Amino acid sequence: KLDAGIDLCRLIRADDPHMPFLLQSSQESMRQTAMELGVGFIVKYSKTLLIELSDYISQEFAFGDFVFKDTYTGVIIGRAHNLMEMEQRIADIPEDVLLYNTQRNRFSKWMFSRGLFGLAGIVKETDGSKFDSTADLREFLIGAIREYRMLLGQGVVAKFDARTYNDYIWFARIGDGSLGGKARGLAFMNSMLLKHKMYDKYEGVKVLLPRTVVIATDYFDEFIRENGLQYVINSDTSDEEILSEFASSRLPERLFEELRAYIRYARGPLAVRSSSKLEDSHYQPFAGIYSTYMIPVVDNEDQMLRLLGKAIKSVYASVYFASSRAYIQATSNLLSEEKMGVIIQEVCGTEEEGLFFPTISGVARSLNFYPIGDEKPEDGIANIALGLGKLVVDGGLTLRFSPEHPKNILQLSTAELTLSDTQREMYALNLKPEQFKTSLDDAVNLERLEINKVRDFRNMKYAASVWDAENQSISESSFVEGRKIITFSRVLKYDTLPLARIISDLLAMGEEEMKCPVEIEFAVNMDVPYGTDAIFNFLQIRPIVDSQANKSLDWENIDTSDAILYAKSALGAGAVEGVRDIIYVKTEGFDTSNTRKIAEIISRRNEEMSKQKRGYVLVGPGRWGSSDSWLGIPVRWADISEAKVIVENGIEQMRVEPSQGTHFFQNLTSFGVGYLTISPFLGDGNFDAEALNKLDAVYEDEFVRQVQFPEPLYIFVDGRANKGIIKKE
Predict the structure, then answer these.
(1) Higher pLDDT, 103 or 369
(2) How confident is the model at residue 575 (pLDDT cuts 50, 70, 90)?
(3) Among 543, 523, 548, residue whose Cα is nearest residue 534
(4) Is the same domain home to 303 and 317?
(5) Which residues contact 716 (CB under 8 A, 6 or more apart)?
(6) Does 293 lie in the same domain as 247?
(7) Are strands 483-486 and 464-468 parallel, antiparallel or unpaired?
(8) Are 194 and 114 contained in the same domain?
(9) Which of 230, 302, 325, 396 is the 20 to 30 A CA-CA neighbour of 689?
(10) Where residue 170 sits, what CATH number does that domain have?
(11) For 533, which DSSP code?
């Protein structure tokens, strides 16, 4: 059939009007037919056939630059060489040019020709008829390109270049030295998130790292050298003097200029975090030892640089603080070998009334050493809170749940527990730049707010339930008046966000990739415009010690009747040898208002034990290491660094959950310190304080007592059986 080609053309055009089609014929008269059909035409025996064919392919298949032409005059009004330029051109071309190229699928062809198949597929389905206005079409196309560019930035660690840095470079490094332990973990998980396609795996939420820039350790060395700060390593200078010296020093000029380029793309508050060479390595993770500062973003570039520089220098200084020195010494490392990288990340959250905070902050561990009910140790455990994560990592009152059993939460099991054991306060960043001052306290510009004083904040609709006093019950209704209680029921019970599933998947992925149990930190922003996906920011990952690997005793044949202390909840490192001392807080007449005094006494006793190079068992009421002095003794790690076994002794007036999810707890487990929890008044374990009281004290005051045995005690902490015992040999 002579016109079979024309029939084929009509058939294809009926199915897809914009499919490129080229007619070839030996008859010049067929050119008119091709024009009527709206397809290309070349003469079969043309001397310029290859040139004409090349031109047609370049034009119709959109190879080369995308050329924008005026639809009336044909004059070129713009070009796009890459995706960034395409986004810029779409934002400013006339409406008729936008519609012309959209209706003919020219944008998608150009994208297909560059291998941008995912984006091209989305754009191809858009012909303009689905939108109420050209403005909506333009907004959709720009949004699709931005989303794709953001996705391209995931999983890549780019070298920072002030000339090319932009909004879509998601993870960059400044300098050529080491990234530091924490940043290495982030870079590793950045690639793993891409490998496991986590970014858009869950409906209604994007899973990704915050935009991150890492200052490598070579700039730390240069800063120390240029400012002559080497003397600090071997000096007895106080923390205040060290910080003052560092803050008054100048950052390397090259770093200063790169930071100037970086802040032009900062869209929100920044967290300036440590990433030392030793940090988050196996068995010595240095969790919470160094400082993290948060700063607001301000319009004045010079002021912003001063804020950022001050925060970076404060993180550098924290390497040499007393608590850091004690930790480095305890891990048998040398202070002179420690190098500090710095992570700069955008803070997850939104602003309200001059405060900035996320909907959810949390810590999750892939091993749960205190499973209840149907929970298993391998199900993991999570602690979450409204507001910044400082409350979680400092051991404040948070919501604790197993990601595999998110609806079975002990704290919410009764009205009494819900009212007494749920979050009472939250942290938020004060956005006034003058609030950020050079300070040893890295929370200097954080606000600590009572929950009921922020009851009308937008995020409350995702985080809070209401105590219905009239019916003596917890209500999810927004029409009920009453005390706000942080339950996250809309998330965990009604699954408005698949938080538990995301946490479970990330913990499993982390364990698989790091070949050991892990702990992660994260933040979630649900306060987003309607129709916009929530953001789950993966902030940190670190290895943890799996005490389940320790051998187990035959407890059926162990006599616990003569034990000084016996625990049915224990985490630890098997046999603990060479310990003869027990330091314990007196429970008779114990008053929570004295916990800060007790912490100071414990710190002094620990310092004395350190001088004598003697370990000890430490027993006290409530939660060790809590920043809330009403929940326990607010010691820091440096205050108890010589303790070989830590015991949390629940008493009638201080019933608290174990310290899991805190940096303090992380350091205890990583050092292989025995960790026991007892509540003798509930029949859960026992502590024979009466027997200890009969012994002569080597130290005693109003609150604390220390006894010493002539021979080392028998101490065994059985992580696998979850039991521990301390007795005389």
Answers:
(1) 103
(2) confident
(3) 523
(4) yes
(5) 553, 574, 575, 576, 724, 725
(6) yes
(7) antiparallel
(8) no
(9) 396
(10) 3.30.1490.20
(11) P
